[in-house]
Amino acid sequence: MPEELLDPRGLDIEVSFGGRAIGSARDLELLKGLEHFPDGLYEAVLDSATAGHQAPRLDSATIVVDLNEERVLVISVDEETGAPMGTAYWHRNERWSWNTTSHLTTARHPGQGEAVWRLQTGCRLDGNAVELPVAVTELACTGATPCDDRLLPPIVDDLPEALVLTFSVMPLPPGNYTCPGNPPALVDVSLPTPIGDRAILDGHYWPARRIK
Fold first, then answer.
1. Confidence at residue 31, expressed as pLDDT on a 0 to 100 scale
2. How far is CA 18 from CA 155, 156, 162, in A?
3. Which domain holds residue 46?
4. Share above pLDDT 90 across residues of the chain, in percent, rounded to a whole number
5. In whole angstroms, what separates CA 19 from the centre of its chain?
6. Measured between alpha carbons, how far is 40 from 45 in angstroms, rounded to an integer?
7. What pLDDT is stored for residue 49 in this prediction?
8. Which among 7, 131, 163, 207 has the fewest CB atoms less than 10 Å away?
9. How much helix, strand and coil, in percent to the nearest 5, is found in the chain?
């Protein structure tokens, strides 16, 4: 897993799936290989293609995370870049069954809600700038409730080759919220150093996704 091609934050970054922490990127590296498949899972994954699901790539780079005796994650990996190409959640009753597919994210503190961000419309970046205008969108269903007053200060990883921003929000109280689309919060993020010509990444995802 070439660290510089995967995520500039390094292999000690904690990774999550569906809001559940599953270990560090370094831990996942140790779970590569078909020998980690529980009995019957390999065949079930291959059979899933005939049931209308896309079978992940299964080779020495495949990662299997044992959540417990009945639930596992199967992460297919691009051998050249080390980047996950797909993550599927499997559970076992009498046999293994595909449950859902999603992306991996960076683990956050308990009680914090997920958010993603983009550059504000019309933003023109200057390499000498030490401020970044961003639009942050909460991912949970909120009934279109603005998150401006619940937005937490971002984690800013100011790295030589990349600038990684990770946002979180304080969630709304429990309730039955609809999902019509959440309004973005517009904020200007102060940076420790000028942007320069570095890549700019959203650290919500693992690996972090390129914004620019």
1. 93
2. 20, 23, 26
3. 3-106
4. 64
5. 10
6. 9
7. 65
8. 131
9. 10, 40, 50
If one counts every other C-beta atom within 10 angstroms of the C-beta of residue 20, the result is 9
135 and 98, same structural domain? no
Beta carbons within 8 Å of 130's beta carbon, 6+ residues apart: 190, 191, 192, 193, 194, 195
Amino acid found at 13:
I
Q: To which H or E segment does residue 21 belong?
A: strand 20-24
Rg value, the chain, Cα: 19
Residue 3's SS3 state is helix
Please identify, among 106, 139, 160, the residue that sits at the C-terminal boundary of a domain: 106
83, pLDDT greater than 90? no
Strand 105-106 versus strand 113-119 pairing type: unpaired
* Tokens standing for residue 95: 């046999």
Rounded-to-integer distance, Cα 212 and Cα 117, Å: 12
**Whole-prediction pTM value?**
0.88
Examine the domain organization and report whether 75 and 138 are in the same domain. no
Residue 79 tokens, joined: 């051998």
